[in-house]
Design a protein that fits this description.
This protein is of the alpha+beta class. The protein is 36% helix and 13% strand. It has 23 helices and 19 strands. The strands form 6 sheets. The chain has a 7-stranded mixed sheet with strand order 1-4-3-2-13-12-11. A 4-stranded antiparallel sheet has the order 14-15-16-17. The protein has a two-stranded antiparallel ribbon with strand order 5-6. A hairpin with a 5-residue loop joins strand 18 (593-594) and strand 19 (600-601). Helix 11 (399-419) crosses helix 22, helix 18 (557-566) packs antiparallel against helix 19 and helix 22 (638-650) crosses helix 23 (658-665). Bound molecules: alpha-D-glucopyranose (GLC).
Amino acid sequence: MKNILCFICSSTMKPSARFLISRTSKSFLGSAKQPLRSNRTHSSLGNTCRPGPATIIAPPPPPTPARFNPYRLMSTVFRPGFAPPSIAFANRGSFCVASRAVVRQQHSTSVETRVNENNFERIYVQNGIAAAAKPLVVERIDKDENIREVVSVEDGSAEEGDLNLRNPEGVEIVSPRREESDIEKEAWKLLNDAVVRYCGSPVGTVAANDPGDKTPLNYDQVFIRDFVPSALAFLLRGEGEIVRNFLLHTLQLQSWEKTVDCYSPGQGLMPASFKVRTVSLDGDKTEEVLDPDFGESAIGRVAPVDSGLWWIILLRAYGKITGDYTLQERVDVQTGIKLVLNLCLADGFDMFPSLLVTDGSCMIDRRMGIHGHPLEIQALFYSSLRCGREMLTVTDGSKNLVRAINNRLSALSFHIREYYWVDMKKMNEIYRYKTEEYSLDATNKFNIYPEQIPLWLMDWIPEEGGYLIGNLQPAHMDFRFFTLGNLWSVISSLSTPKQNEAILNLVEGKWNDIVGHMPLKICYPALENEEWRIITGSDPKNTAWSYHNGGSWPTLLWQFTLACIKMGRIDLARKAVSMAESKLGADRWPEYYDTRTGKFIGKQARLYQTWTIAGFLTSKVLLENPEKASLLFWEEDYELLEMCVCALSKTGRKKCSRVAAKSQILV
Ligand code: GLC
């Protein structure tokens, strides 16, 4: 057995910040039953894909020898449980040098958290040995003959083909109850056509598949956030393999050191997107490699903060829908969850429990004045913390992280419920706020000047209903309504049950503004004139009522459907879905629509946008099988509420009990 470390250097090429992963590995993607040690044969570069150990082509040596630290790179490569054996630090170039010693160093992997020791211990895993997986009893469904057979799969030995199974929670895999409409058939075909294969296996879907688009930029890549509705559509159809592959490949990408110029962003960062490239090797040989983008190529060099959060959310959904929990139990996957959450929970200068991010760090990936504590990120952060708490195996090494997750969950939900919420009553309070209050029990804690209440809101705020504002900073409330953040707060129970109801009441009451001719507006209202010039930096793509600036994004339909099902408002979801259904196919599945009511196809919208197609399909499947939705949303967690009230009681503000929690926080 040979482990080979390859340095591939090209003296003429400028060192690139990129790195590539090539060739899939059965043991990497395979069942948890397989030994997960990193003692593998080297597979030489220069072959086309075939089952076997992975070849990983990593970033080239950094510019100065002092920065080059193979041990650091390797420590991220050999995450416990990963199978990749042969490593290459590559510059898309030339030769290999073998080094066994470095590889052996890595069999014991220690991932140091960057979080305050008060909160966490180090994540330490010995020798890359996976934890024993629980036995799994499942029912195999023979698709053609509709015969069910009970199969006992021990130690997570479920193979990829076993994914079309009955969920142990008793939920059956979706089978269409009726003949699909032509538009649905077309959508499924387009979704299948968008599938990206890596070494023969499906690993994701391209962002858009527009045949007329001569400059696809990065729309020919697999975006992490865009893949979520595709993944759900596949999962709900009983197809788990593509999702499993996606989760494992993106996990592997997370491990790598990445650089933007001379700076390396945090270790747990997940890429915004990746592309499968075919690279030429010696002679006429080629090889497929995965080429991720962590923002170093993205327009504006924006950090994809939401990628890791979506990855965790999807991992949970995969377990819930397929019943295959062995994936989340794998040691490498557990480490991946910890890395994402550690990065989010790391101490900084923050005074708030909400996550502080730069502009463009989520679905709105351009400058739109959402830097600070945007709602969308907070809602995704909250649900990934809940997922983490659910999926993390509690051991001595993880118990501090779990404690920190619980603390953050309760602090975050209190903060958002209390300070982001606006309705008629709250607006009236803000309107009469006193300012410059210097004290511990100030009413106007963030020193909001009532003068900043925008004129549009004075008219717009309804008697009934309310919503969570877009952002909160010292002396600043961004009163815009952001759809994804509000919907995801409903879905994850970041907001209270009453607030959830009020949010949907607001959407219903403001139907023309938020839904109009095409569901759903990304935010309301648009920035216009001077505000647009200053806040977007005169962005010609984000002009008023276009793209991120008040454009309408049909992909948001699936989150809307999910929120509506959760809140028993199926009527609203049906109305929105049927409106989308009547147009999307004829309009060739645009990425977004423009104008105040979403009348026109977006001026620079891609056509055949995959998450438009997948969002529609996921909504249709959920509407047809509303019981499935419960696998994807969260109910109120009273334990968290109690923790929050008890924390507040220490400061003498509230009484500490569950009853008090319900009555004082859920008002
Ligand atoms: C745009 C969107 C972003 C999406 C990407 C690919 O940049 O703003 O959210 O992920 O396109 O579809």
